[in-house]
Each structure stands twice: as structure tokens, then as C-alpha cells.
């Protein structure tokens, strides 16, 4: 799951530019596969729209095996007032391995005077529609923090961005290789964070759209990833998954 464009998008929207699109290709060292991510943001006078789509490419399969999508709308038709940093937020996310979810809430955006440092907080009600796993007494809330810093430590073209999600869950962990109906353990909270570091290497050869970098996916009891359909146990507890890749800004 990626939200790296979100803060850049907020900056772009605030500066009057209408849209931004990028594509990323990452190699996941833990899972041993490539992930293609497409991100898009569009700002308007009523707020902004953001989406991304992750597509997983296991090397032992001839076609992409799994996908995950998030699309969100920030509603803010009071831009230019003292309440401009505060927006309403509505979001849908899901995929062919993940449960569909609707989220409703608010977000608050902070930034430096030149928008080179950005931070947003979101608090949302989350409604999960589970298909494979079951829900048992969960708190239907999600807290999200997203950040972005341009020219990190004074290095031109070095960007540090990422997000942290914490949400209530009622997942009953099962092992489909043994018995899909056998409940093993219930988790009530899930955490996912993906700090990213990108360097605009293309600035050195007249190709400013190209960046090189990567991310570290840090999670707790997160069932995401194409391998979740074969082994739910793999992501129980705390896990770290480093990734390396390229990004192209259109």
C-alpha cells in the first residue's frame, strides 16, 4: 500500500496545479516479487481526489496475481478561510486479497511556509466487509498520518515521505493450508507504516521525472500481500519488508 504522493499532491493542489501522476516499480526483498504502483492526485475548488493501485508480480507466475486499490476524496469547499487546513474525508479501499472497506472522517493538513515540509492527520470511521476472515468485536476506527519533506538535509532532489496507518480489526487468523475454518488467534489492532526515501537522479542528465529509492514496509498483524492467500501466518506479529525501486513522475 502506497501513499507517497499524497503530501506532494496537497502541496501541488495548494499551489494551483491541477494534477500529478507517477508510477513506481519496487522489488520486495522479503516476498521476492515486483510491485507496480500507479498514483494520481487531482485538486479542484471543492477539494481533491487521490487514488493508487498496487499490482503484485510473483516471479513464479506468468501474470500479475494480486492487486490492491485505494481511492479517496477530500471535501473542502471552504478553501481560503481559517478552516482551510480541515477537510472532510471519504475513502474506499480493497482488492482481490483484501477486504473491501469504506472510511469516513476528517483530516487536518499542516505545512511549512514554502510547502517543503508537510504533515497530515486523519481520523476515520472504518467499515470492513470481510469475505475470508471473520470479525469479532473490533473498534471501527483508523488513524492515519502522512508526511513529506523535500530536499532532506539540504540535499536537492532528496525526498522523505510515507505514511502510518493504525486501525481496529477483528481478524481471526487461520491457516488455509491446514484448515480454513480453524480459528487460531484474534487481533484487535493492525499497524502498517511505509517510510519512503527518493532521490531525483534524473536531474543530473536532463530527466527530472526519474527518481531512485525505495521504502521499508513495517507492519504488525497485517495480512496484506499476495502470499496471504497461501500462508496467513507469515505476517503475524511485527514484520519488516525492505523494497528498492524506481519512480517516474509524469
Description of the molecule:
The chain has one helix spanning 5-14; strands at residues 19-28, 33-44, 47-58, 66-75, 86-95, 100-111, 117-129, 141-149, 158-173, 185-193, 196-199, 210-220, 238-249. The two termini are 20 Å apart. Strands 1, 2, 3, 4, 5, 6, 7, 8, 9, 10, 11, 12 and 13 form a 13-stranded antiparallel β-sheet that branches. The model is unreliable at 5-16 and 225-233 (pLDDT under 50). With 250 residues, it is mainly beta. 4% of the residues lie in helices and 56% in strands. It has 1 helix and 13 strands. The chain is globular.
Secondary structure layout plus pairing:
Layout: H1 5-14, E1 19-28, E2 33-44, E3 47-58, E4 66-75, E5 86-95, E6 100-111, E7 117-129, E8 141-149, E9 158-173, E10 185-193, E11 196-199, E12 210-220, E13 238-249
Antiparallel strand pairs: 1-2, 1-13, 2-3, 3-4, 4-5, 5-6, 6-7, 7-8, 8-9, 9-10, 9-11, 10-12, 11-12, 12-13
The topology string of helices and strands comes to: HEEEEEEEEEEEEE
N-C termini distance:
20 Å
Give me the Rg, rounded: 19 Å
Provide the β-strand percentage band: over 45%
Largest sheet data: 13 strands, antiparallel
Indicate the overall shape. globular
Low-confidence stretches: 5-16, 225-233
Secondary structure: helix percent: under 10%
Q: How many helical stretches? A: 1
* Strands, total number: 13
Structural class: mainly beta
Overall pLDDT score: 82
Amino acid at each position: 500500500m502506497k501513499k507517497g504522493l499524497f503530501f506532494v499532491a496537497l502541496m501541488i493542489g495548494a499551489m494551483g496545479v491541477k494534477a500529478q501522476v507517477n508510477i513506481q516499480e519496487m522489488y520486495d526483498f522479503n516476498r521476492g516479487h515486483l510491485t507496480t504502483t500507479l498514483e494520481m492526485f487531482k485538486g479542484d475548488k471543492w477539494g481533491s481526489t487521490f487514488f493508487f493501485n498496487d499490482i503484485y508480480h510473483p516471479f513464479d507466475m506468468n501474470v500479475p496475481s494480486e492487486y490492491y486499490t485505494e481511492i479517496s476524496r477530500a471535501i473542502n469547499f471552504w478553501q481560503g478561510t481559517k478552516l482551510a487546513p480541515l477537510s472532510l474525508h471519504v475513502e474506499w479501499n480493497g482488492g482481490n486479497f483484501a477486504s473491501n472497506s469504506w472510511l469516513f472522517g476528517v483530516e487536518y493538513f499542516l505545512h511549512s511556509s514554502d510547502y517543503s515540509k508537510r504533515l497530515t492527520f486523519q481520523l476515520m470511521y472504518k467499515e470492513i466487509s470481510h469475505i475470508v476472515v471473520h470479525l469479532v468485536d473490533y473498534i471501527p476506527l483508523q488513524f492515519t498520518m502522512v508526511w513529506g519533506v523535500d530536499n532532506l538535509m539540504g540535499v536537492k532532489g532528496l525526498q522523505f515521505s510515507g505514511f502510518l496507518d493504525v486501525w481496529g480489526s477483528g481478524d481471526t487468523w487461520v491457516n488455509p493450508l491446514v484448515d480454513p475454518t480453524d480459528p487460531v488467534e484474534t487481533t484487535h489492532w493492525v499497524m502498517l507504516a511505509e517510510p519512503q526515501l527518493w532521490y531525483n537522479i534524473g536531474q543530473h542528465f536532463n530527466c527530472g521525472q526519474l527518481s531512485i529509492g525505495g521504502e521499508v514496509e513495517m507492519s504488525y498483524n497485517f495480512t496484506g500481500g499476495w502470499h496471504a492467500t497461501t500462508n496467513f501466518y507469515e505476517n503475524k506479529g511485527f514484520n519488516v519488508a525492505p523494497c528498492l525501486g524506481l519512480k517516474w513522475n509524469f
